[in-house]
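queue> pop job 88
queue> type: inverse folding (structure -> sequence)
queue> payload:
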């Protein structure tokens, strides 16, 4: 059944404590810990069809040429409303000072105009609402909240025009409150367990590790919504009892406008791993090394899927800017990257 993933792609050709976190020295994983849970999003936005997507750790060198020098890093978290074109996106930008963050907010007002008057949140908050002029013609509600040197931008697209400022205020205050908790030390990041860290690709000179996390298996479904239903995509995992994955985000060193995402899932035994890849992409779509690989033009990314021992894995190389296509710089480095990772997983 899920060999249709391969067919479609081919056709496209709380936690451990940290100390000393302040507004000025917060690290990417500190800010990542401030993000809302899937349960938070489902409660706020109204139903359980909100599924988590992959995060991006916007840490240099990723997109280094286009980043302002005053921007330290940004963390992007994404959620999709299954069965609709709606999404909820949150971008946390950590600036080098409160002054730089305040300037960023002023720049937003200069570009988008006067904010709608709404509930207070954080140190400063702006609310905007527009409607897309084409496509699904969704309404787009955007919130900007500043907490010290961190600016949070939340974008919620929806078919209905009026969520109400009270609800937008709840969203703004939840996001701002969690950043405050991180900066005050009340919330701490949960680093990957040693056993999970051992499953990450070995460090090499082709890519730079930006961040890593353990995520729910539903993230895989949102990577391939264009080629199959979410239930079809996750069934080969959930049928075998797989509920989580280990995710790592990288910059491609030969072209830092490219983002490389590595995803690992562990099965009970090698037989289950083989069963999974046969169901997911079909054994006849694997090359002589047992790797499925393609450039999915409709997704604008290179896709690699394989097993090693009891582990399944995916590597995705795409442009860090949404809507742009992956460059051919992805091709050569991925050969050695995947070979080294397969050897590492075989003994893990």
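queue> result:
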């Amino acid at each position: 059944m899920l060999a249709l993933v391969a067919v479609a792609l081919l056709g496209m050709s709380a936690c451990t404590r940290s100390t000393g976190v302040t507004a000025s020295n917060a690290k990417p994983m500190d800010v990542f810990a401030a993000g809302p849970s899937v349960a938070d999003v489902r409660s706020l936005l109204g139903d359980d069809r909100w599924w988590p997507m992959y995060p991006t750790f916007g840490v240099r060198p990723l997109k280094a040429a286009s980043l302002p020098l005053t921007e330290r890093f940004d963390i992007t978290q994404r959620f999709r409303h299954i069965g609709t074109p709606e999404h909820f996106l949150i971008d946390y930008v950590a600036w080098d000072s409160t002054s730089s963050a305040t300037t960023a907010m002023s720049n937003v007002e200069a570009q988008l105009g006067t904010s709608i008057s709404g509930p207070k949140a954080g140190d400063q908050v702006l609310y905007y609402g527009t409607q897309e002029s084409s496509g699904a013609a969704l309404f787009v509600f955007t919130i900007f909240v500043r907490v010290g040197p961190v600016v949070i931008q939340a974008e919620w697209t929806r078919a209905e025009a009026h969520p109400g400022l009270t609800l937008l205020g709840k969203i703004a205050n939840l996001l701002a409150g969690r950043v405050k908790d991180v900066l005050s030390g009340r919330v701490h990041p949960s680093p990957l367990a040693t056993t999970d860290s051992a499953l990450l690709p070995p460090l090499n000179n082709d890519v730079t590790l930006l961040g890593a996390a353990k995520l729910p298996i539903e993230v895989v479904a949102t990577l391939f919504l264009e080629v199959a239903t979410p239930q079809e995509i996750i069934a080969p995992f959930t049928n075998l009892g797989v509920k989580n994955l280990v995710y790592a985000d990288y910059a491609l060193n030969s072209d830092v406008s490219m983002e490389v995402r590595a995803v690992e899932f562990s099965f009970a035994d090698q037989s289950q791993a083989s069963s999974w890849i046969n169901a997911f992409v079909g054994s006849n779509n694997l090359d002589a090394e047992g790797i499925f690989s393609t450039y999915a033009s409709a997704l604008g990314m290179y896709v690699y899927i394989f097993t090693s021992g009891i582990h399944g894995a995916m590597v995705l190389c795409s442009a860090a800017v949404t809507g742009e296509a992956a460059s051919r710089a992805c091709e050569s480095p991925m050969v050695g990257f995947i070979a080294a990772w397969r050897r590492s997983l075989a003994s893990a």
